[in-house]
Design goal:
Layout: H1 12-27, H2 35-65, E1 72-76, H3 89-95, H4 100-108, H5 121-130, H6 158-164, E2 168-173, E3 192-196, H7 200-205, H8 208-212, E4 244-248, E5 254-255, H9 266-288, E6 294-299, H10 321-341, E7 347-351
Parallel strand pairs: 1-6, 1-7, 2-3, 2-6
Antiparallel strand pairs: 3-4, 4-5
Length: 352
């Protein structure tokens, strides 16, 4: 069992550096960087050396308190949020709602309010998973259709590195790094993965509810005059696509929670979100009970939502259905934090 000690929060960069700085240097003869790196290195060589010593000491101190074990890692990535949507109460007030649980997590840890980031969903995810610029392997844009490409199998991911260092690895939720098999999480270092093949475009917009509310046009006969249509095959209908799948490492995935001929709806999308939250809690219990450290990656689909179908009440001055889903997600993250406050295992937590 992992030692039962209080939570401490570290920067993800510190954790990665502490765990893999030496092994990376040994695994490659020499890493060739962009020119900008060498300029920064020359400007900061002494500071970087001092920072390395601080990180090394923190790792030593941590392992002493944790029976020689490295930290467990929980990584939560919330999709397509705006500045001030969470983490800072004053900006919550401007937006017209509150995220108390996420704000508390930010207060306990380290809040980054100014940084360079990728401009959209897919590049952000692949940059974090690989540590490389997304355009180097054709992942610099965000596909919202059946694209036929994805994260190459030859890329080395954080999950693969952690796995080689003795970690159990699980991914739950949105992936969106390709719709080809080699790009899926269970082929990119995760022992188990539950995820949708596509993203919220298909899942919360391209269905009958979205068509009924005119969030989208052309899904079916709902609100669409097809007198000029020449091709009835090309309809972006989520019910005609594979939605949620599950799979174990290196194996083929299987579609779950859809019956033959069943229509995909906003209610099904909500069920998927609830299921991913429940699976995250379930795997948190299972992983914490094992002797090996773990990397649990939870990437919710909410708060992104299209139709109003599953929003029964509007409770904030903001008045938006996106906000109601953000409040729900904040409650779910609070549930996760409450579980981790119990005397169980030591975690590193990153919420983005």
């Amino acid at each position: 069992m992992i030692s039962k000690i209080p939570n401490y929060l570290f920067s993800v960069l510190m954790v990665i550096t502490m765990l893999f700085g030496t092994s990376l240097a040994q695994a490659t003869d020499k890493i060739v960087h962009d020119a900008e790196y060498y300029i920064l290195e020359a400007q900061n060589v002494e500071k970087w050396a001092a920072d390395d010593k601080i990180v090394d000491k923190k790792l030593v101190d941590f392992k002493k308190k944790n029976e020689g074990n490295p930290p467990n890692i929980l990584y939560i990535l919330i999709d397509d949020i705006g500045f001030g949507d969470l983490g800072i109460p004053e900006l919550n007030s401007i937006r017209g709602y509150k995220t108390p649980n996420i704000n508390k997590l930010a207060d306990q840890g380290m809040r980054f309010s100014r940084m360079y980031t990728e401009p959209s969903c897919t590049p952000t995810r692949v940059a974090f998973m690989t540590g490389r610029q997304p355009y180097r392997y054709g992942m610099g844009d965000t596909a919202v259709d059946i694209s036929g490409f994805g994260l190459p199998g030859k890329e080395i991911t954080l999950a693969e590195m952690l796995s080689e260092s003795g970690y159990n690895t699980v991914h739950i939720g949105k992936w969106h790094m390709g719709d080809i098999m080699e790009s899926w999480p269970n082929h990119q270092g995760f022992d188990f993965a539950a995820f949708p093949i596509h993203q919220q475009g298909q899942l919360t917009i391209f269905h009958d509810d979205g068509a009924d509310e005119e969030v989208t046009i052309g899904i079916g006969k709902n609100n669409y005059d097809d007198k000029f249509t020449l091709d009835n095959w090309h309809r972006p209908d989520a019910a005609a696509m594979v939605t949620g799948v599950e799979g174990r490492r290196g194996e083929k995935v299987r579609e779950v929670h859809m019956q033959p001929g069943e229509r995909w709806t906003e209610a099904k999308y909500h069920e998927m979100n609830v299921r991913y939250q429940e699976q995250t809690m379930e795997h948190l219990h299972k992983l914490a009970a094992q002797d090996k450290p773990f990397f649990l990656q939870y990437w919710p689909l909410y708060p992104l939502t299209g139709p109003r179908t599953t929003t029964e009440e509007y409770t904030t001055p903001n008045g938006g259905r996106y906000i109601e889903k953000m409040k729900l997600l904040d409650t779910w993250i609070g549930d996760i934090m409450d579980e981790m406050d119990a005397p169980r295992a030591h975690f590193f937590i990153k919420c983005v």
